[in-house]
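Table S2 (continued). Query chain:
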Amino acid sequence: MLIDNYQLQQTQKRFDERTAQRKRNERLIEEHRPLEVDTPERVQQFLKRRGLTLSADGTPTVEALSTVMAGETAGLPPEIALERQIGASDLMGVAFLAEGLRVANTIARIWISVRDSRPAGYATGFMVSPRLLITNHHVLGDPIVARNSLAEFNYERRGDGTITQGVNFTFDPDKFFYADRDLDYACVAVGARSRDGRDLSTYGYNLLSEDEGKAIAAQWANIIQHPSGEPKQLSLRENQIVDVLPQFLHYKTDTAPGSSGAPVFNDRWEIVALHHSGVYAKTADGRPMAVDGQPWQSWMGEDRIKWEANEGVRISRLIQHLRDQLRTDAHRTLFNEMLAPSQDVVPLVIGSPREAATQAPPQAAMTATVAEDGSATWTIPLTVTVNVGGKPAAPSIAAAPPAAAPSPLPAAPPEAPTPPTPATTGKSPNEVLAAARAELGQRGNVMSVRLGYVFDKGRITSERALVVTVRKKMSNADLRVAGVEELPASYGGLKVQVSDPTIEELILADQGVPAREALALNLPSVEEITYTPPPSPGLQRVKASMTVNAHLSPDAGWTQLSAFLDGTKKTLTVGMYDFGAPHIVDAVKNAGTVRGFKEMLLTIQPGQSVGSGTKANDLKDKEVVDELEAALGDKFKVAWVKIGAVNGWVASSYHIKVAVRDKSSFWLSSGNWQSSNQPPANPLALPWKRSWLSEYNREWHAIVDHPGLAADFEKYLRNDYDHNIGGAEEAMILPDLLMPAEMFMPTATERAAAFKYFEPLIETREFDVQPLLTPDNYHEHVLSLIESAQEELLIQNQTFNTPKPNHAKLRELMSAVLDKQRAGVNVRVIFRLLMKADARKNLEALQDFGFDMSAIRVQRNCHTKGIVVDRQRVMIGSQNWSEQGVSLNRDASLLFEDEKLANYFANVFEHDWANLATDDIDSAPSGVELATAEGAAPRGMVKVSIEEYLETL
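Corresponding output:
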């Protein structure tokens, strides 16, 4: 489970505010003065609950021994009883472990937002009544998330290393659900029976107490948890409470991020807090510290952070808050079932013993093996080793009568819980899918069968469907003529929906294995590409006076770029993915013929992006190079970048779009030097003409006059050039695409929508800007940008891909966005609608990942790659949100800390969200095919370069 950044920030704030008090507490603990750490009132309540009092001189007296965990102190002298109760002695009776076993039975691993048998993350939760479970708000923040999540009990590792079979229960938020962000709790009802018919009651529950004095500062606590979704584990008496706040406890612990929602117990196994957040140690320069003392980096995973302290919500405050929220008598009845009477109750854990709890083959008897040093190891089935004091004992003892050997259990739980069972068949969707693949997948026209979602009038719903991909969709009449059996409307209780193949599926079916690298399916590591940064890398944040020209395409792209090129005096250094627009070629040739011009240096990816439609007259990259060589002679230099998963300069795309002029200013963009990105037009002069927005790409651009930043980018471009001189001019040629011409025509809805063109924002003043490049520094800064969002996060990118299992960098960014959405930030996303089948598959995957789909829209011709945060910060650039786009390709961006600039692009986003974007993928026609030969596109079709698709990878 990724830790919630809002909770981290609030915890850090409280931790900082309590520094003086905490240091005082820790000093008293080190001086072995535990009863002076907390307030006298709380200490007296703590001792009273345990039947102890202190005289004025500190002498303890046993008055009425508590019946809760009485075995820990019964028969002991008052002084030793006091040591046991305050944790000054490490000796614990065997009953401590026996009761801990019963407590462990009530703890569940939470599968968060399960989609297509995969959770968005894991956490911990615990039963507090026959039907109610408590976890964190940042785990189950609303009823929708709860409804799509699961509670898994009995996920534990046996003594022989094998894992028990977990038992999954669904949540029932309609019966009971309350949550609060500030106290970071969620209390939700759990279904009474598991999917395989097991009773929830057999796992027991923890009664909760509002009484003060359950724990005091200096006492040791215990945590039972599923860190990072792992089998159940204990952090046993290694968690010392160092501070008690009005609503929270601070304690030192080894708790991992996955332990969000874990219960914090005292030595009597009473719940004293709900674990929810922590404070990480920092390096000298303020960065998070890893467990080895080095600066922590995101790729290490959050379980490698060195935690300085952790924070839990005081259970008494949680109870008080929850009571005030209850709305019905039925809810109050359920609430009252989790409260312990004010007097001592035995036991505080209600439920059957472990062997009954599993309702599976019985567990072996609880035995202990005693080592020579007196330490005993129990398998309960948690494996815990504790020194219980005393002299070495006999080699083994029996804690229970001998029992029959347990029947074998599966060695591991299933990979993921299955979605709810369709009422019509009694089979899970995965079982229906397997049957459908066996039956429908054998048909000649069927390419694949998968689980997806029903799309109703082009819009995704939450209803499960079988999605059958066919090579070519046909009408029922055409199917009959061709002698092809019509697919059923439903199968096994699930609706059947028919889809075209995605572009990837089309190409792989046509080209096979050799196309995998071109499609970025072979993921390299940093070690497998040859990229090395230049000496003295730079890329430092700049806060200085400069001129910034922010503008858009198609609105003002060409008018501003042409003026930029016309202003060239001596040098032009360009890094470009695609370059073929004739009017841009002419402008570069004109710039290169002015008196005093010395050099144009071009670094470019092999290939070309030509076709019909908006690129009908565009040149191939090689033709552009030939023209520039002829016009500029020795003043023109070119390097073709080697692309490839192994020994390529970058992984799959030299995707940058940057031009540096005269070492003093630069143009940076999301768009290439193609006619689709930079149409030779001035829409601002014809503001009533909508066709520019329908036919050409939306791009964000910036022209910046600042010699320092210009020199930084030029240094990297020249480094790229130097390492790729002599590269091959051609890459693997894949077939182009044939798309219906209506794809490039405005729909009736678009024609009816309002629209406008935006004037450039050009200002000379102080700006605060961070230059970003991949593979260099993009990921860390963008992750920080996302995590900084407090109110609003707007993302407009031609690519917003759902991460696959091996997409570590992309997953980290997407998870951060999802965390923000779940934390209540207004997250909205627009990505490109290039082909209906591709959009459908990605939308389904995004829903499986956990996103609220009402916050995601698609937009034809969306080619920009921008982010706006809280209308205070804006990022402009060329990085696609794909695994290689955010990691191992070459791209460039600028991150501005500037309210006015952020508002400019936020207004553009709002315009596009309202007028150009939609949640209806039916606005894209079906019928995309691969072009089979050179030449004109067939009637009614437009030839689109495969580079248009490859650029999204």
